[in-house]
Amino acid sequence: MTPGACAGNAVADATKIASSPGRSCAPGPSCEEQLCKGDVPAGYGACIEKSGVEAQCPAGWGTPMQVADGYDLSCSACSCDVNSGSSCGAASLDIFADGGCSSKLATMAVDGQCQANPAVGQYAGAFMYHATVNEVCAASGPKTATPVAKGERTICCKP
């Protein structure tokens, strides 16, 4: 069997990304100072938000939370090996009287066994080999999907 290659395309499955939806609201300008002091209505938290990823929050604002508007998946490249697990079967040899392969004399199985020539005593001008290839394309290489955040922000809340 001749070595070969096959191509595969990675399929990103965004349903495999777990997320927890959240909601934020912005106070009106007259309430900003109260919010910064941590004076907020019951059931709400005082938080600040900044675009991008920050390693730490300002003093007194707790631990940073990274949030995003959504994610895209970036898949690693992979390759395929068509030879691993592939096989040939039903091999046969056609024997022809002419060089153009139009006058078939006989067909014989090609199975690794010693066989008598079914066209013995006749002039063989050409041969044609046939086989069924059972191709298996096995993916190889890294198979990883990396989430890429869209609209990343850092949120810091008063403890």
What would a concise description of this structure say?
With 159 residues, the chain is mainly β.
Structure characterization notes:
The chain is mainly beta and 159 residues long. Among the domains are: 29-70 and 153-157, no CATH class; 80-139, no CATH class. The chain contains 1 helix and 10 strands, in the order αββββββββββ. The strands form 4 sheets. Strands 1-10-2 form a 3-stranded antiparallel β-sheet, with no helix packed on it. Strands 6-5-7 form a 3-stranded antiparallel β-sheet, with no helix packed on it. It has a two-stranded antiparallel sheet with strand order 3-9. A hairpin with a 7-residue loop joins strand 5 and strand 6 (104-109). It is rod-shaped. The chain starts with 31 loop residues before the first helix and ends with a strand. The model has no long low-confidence stretch (mean pLDDT 81).
What's the layout of helices and strands?
Blueprint: H1 32-36, E1 47-51, E2 65-67, E3 70-75, E4 79-81, E5 87-96, E6 104-109, E7 126-134, E8 138-140, E9 145-150, E10 153-157
Antiparallel strand pairs: 1-10, 2-10, 3-9, 4-8, 5-6, 5-7
Q: What is the spatial order of strands in the main beta sheet?
A: 1-10-2
The structural class is: mainly beta
Q: What is the percentage of strand-forming residues?
A: 35-45%
Helix content: under 10%
Please tell me what the overall shape is: rod-shaped
Provide the succession of SSEs. Answer: HEEEEEEEEEE
Query: What is the mean predicted local confidence, pLDDT?
Result: 81
> In oligomeric terms, what are we looking at?
single chain
Count the DSSP helices: 1
As a whole number of angstroms, the C-alpha radius of gyration is 35 Å
